[in-house]
Amino acid sequence: MIVWLNGAFGAGKTTAAYELLDLLPGSTLYDPEVIGAELRWMLPKEHLAQIADFQDLRSWRRLVADTAAALLSEVPGPLITPMTLLRREYRDEMFGAFAARRIPVRHLLLHAEEAVLRERIDSRAAADGGTARAWCLSHLRPYQEALAWIESEAHTIDTTHLGPRHTAERLAEAIGAGEGAVDIVQTPEPTAETVAAGILLFDDRDRVLLVDPTYKPGWEFPGGVVERGEAPSAAGVREVFEELGLRLSGELGLLVADWEAPRPPGFGGMRLLFDGGRLAPGEAAALLLPSAELRDWRFVTEDEAAELLPPVRLERLRCALRARRAGQPLYLEGGVPTGAADPSRLLR
């Protein structure tokens, strides 16, 4: 198990983590900052110059999950992880990777009033020489902006008037009571190329339905991986029912077949998008969300989708929308149409 202690700099995460080691038998301190330091040593300076924080490194986020799994093969756990985590898409990526490895997560937030945080940061700077003061203070605003989503998921302990030992005792009580358990779908990572089927559903304004998964960054199309022996269109229909409680009937028209090349650590594969047609207002109002898999859905325009979808999915959507208008499916490779007699005609 991972006990993820979130919170701003100065909330008392690290000092409470050391105290918590005494209260949770078998526990081990797991500090992902060590991984960040090693990556800074190994990666080219030119590459590091492009990022502001080691959390922005995809390699760091992957190694956090891989290292946790390796540690838990050596120690009983839990792993106590004091680490500020403010970007929800990074949370989705790493917590989804934990779930894929069957590692449960307890997400706990140590929160303190801003005046107290500033006082603690100043005290730390006086002891350490002040080199990290500006860095810590610069993260107070992003912390306040992220607080809403963190509090919606994590169990919160106010450390404004608590010392490290009392904080650790509160944490141990909360963990023992099952607080902070992250309900997330356990989707095994692929071991080879996959075929995935997505369904585009529209409202009466021709906006497309997107969903927000809890287990990976970015928004997605309803759908999922095709199981062994399953027809892709049937897989899409099955996934839409499992994800949204919506039963689709009739034949689905293929819009896009997109070959996604392997790009380590991903295996790639074929990505299909089908036209699921328009939903009646009553159908949209009745959509259900399984909390372990999806946290939200919304109808969006193409421009709005550009703010939500990762680049490869956005290009796939744009091609699918144009294929839908043209009434002719498109074959893509890496989001780029190929094989059509006149691809530019379809993309106008």
TrEMBL record:
Listed cofactors: Mg(2+)
Positions of the Nudix hydrolase domain: 192-325
GO molecular function, one term: hydrolase activity
Coiled-coil stretches noted in the UniProt entry, renumbered to this chain: none
Keyword Transmembrane helix among record annotations: no
PANTHER family cross-referenced by the UniProt entry: GDP-MANNOSE MANNOSYL HYDROLASE
The protein, known as: ATP/GTP-binding protein
Gene3D superfamilies given in the database record: Nucleoside Triphosphate Pyrophosphohydrolase (3.90.79.10), P-loop containing nucleotide triphosphate hydrolases (3.40.50.300)
PROSITE patterns according to UniProt: NUDIX (PS51462)
Membrane-spanning ranges: none
Keywords for this protein: Hydrolase, Magnesium
Pfam families: AAA_33, NUDIX
